Amino acid sequence: MAVLGVASSVGSPHHGAENGPAFLRAASRRYTWGYPDGCLMNAETGRTGFAAVDLGDIVPEGSSAQEVAEEINGVVARLDPRSIPCVIGGDHSITAGVVGGLIARGTPPVRVIQFDQHLDIQLWEPVTSTRVDPLFNTNVITHVGEQLGRRSVLQVGIDPFIAISAASTAEVSGRMDVSAGIIPATSQLLRDEAGLVEALGSEMPTYVSIDVDVIQQAQMGSTGYPAHLGMDTTDLIRVLEVVLRNNPIVGLDVVEFSAERGAREPAVLSDAMRAADLLMGAISLLTS
Questions:
Q1: In 10 A of CB 16, how many CB atoms?
Q2: Least buried of 2, 84, 140, 207, by fewest C-beta within 10 Å?
Q3: Angle, alpha carbons 93-96-98 (nearest 5°)
């Protein structure tokens, strides 16, 4: 795995996501317990040889989400095609850049599994327009769909109630073409492993995108839009395991952790540790 940070929040109306890589890296150090030669052992398998290399941060020069995505695209496209990019955001618009880089280097995903509170699909006015607005964290999945095609994104953990403009209802079905299905945060399917395997599919080259706002607010307040419902962190890790065990993964990101650089409140640090658990759990599973 090739671990990359993207210290950018230009695709978000909020500052703070640019600090995500620093917080998650700092939180991940707790796994070593201060040992100078510290390493990780998978508690279930006993395996210790995780093949991951931290390549540091991309500190983008671009001033727009599209410019940043193009910079990410260029970096990912130059990675060894045998590597799996694991990208720490940053706001969610970075996903478009990583997917674009995977396509450019010849290892495109067949589909994306998006863990998120929001659809991140452009559903708003103007009704008569087919033009997609410039890339932003709120419409990133629409842009991903333009790269991968119809029904290319399976969406998990979505809020069961989606606010749209009444004037845009005529466009909703067309704009939703990118979605291969929605499993809301309240779905009983999330606790049914056999049903999950069937719903999430298997043996499909898959990109996984985890927006930490999919986690319920009591467990993840350090994000731009905390979820009043949301998934439990343990449930999220369990569902993520189902995805990673049953599909060849071509890339992964963890995005939208957001806090001021100097924040040291216990709640923020706990949130960072939960986000780091997702990251380290994915690395463990993908390199086991």
A1: 20
A2: 2
A3: 110
Q: Please provide residue 62's backbone torsions phi and psi, each rounded to the nearest 5 degrees.
A: -65, 150
Go through 75-91 and write b for each residue having 16 or more CB atoms within 10 A of its CB, e for each that does not. Answer: bbbebeeebbbbbbbbb
Q: What would the two tokens of residue 165 be?
A: 């403009």
Q: Which amino acid is at 108?
A: P
| φ and ψ at residue 259, rounded to 5 degrees | -160, 155
Q: 242: which 2 tokens?
A: 């189902």
Residues constituting the chain:
288
Residues 22, 20: Cα–Cα separation, whole Å = 6
* CA–CA dist 206, 113 (Å, integer): 7
Dihedral angle computed from the Cα positions of residues 184, 279, 226 and 112, in that order, rounded to the nearest 10 degrees: -40
Tell me the pLDDT tens digit for each residue of 165-201: 676 666 676 778 888 899 999 999 998 889 999 998 8
Q: Which runs of consecutive H residues, i.e. helices, occur in the chain?
A: 20-28, 65-77, 94-104, 140-148, 169-175, 193-200, 233-246, 266-286
Q: Are 7 and 19 in contact, with CB atoms under 8 Å apart?
A: yes
Q: Kindly report, residue by residue over 62-87, the tens digit of the pLDDT.
A: 999 999 999 999 999 999 999 999 99
- The DSSP 8-state label assigned to residue 231 in this structure reads B
Distance CA(173)–CA(197), nearest Å, equals: 26
DSSP assignment letter at 82: T
**pLDDT over 90 percentage in the chain:** 69
Which of 55, 60, 95, 62 is CA-nearest to residue 78?
Answer: 55
Cis preceding-peptide flag for 160 (omega within 30 of 0): no
Number of H helices, E strands in the chain: 8, 8
Q: Which tokens hold the place of 124?
A: 């708003």
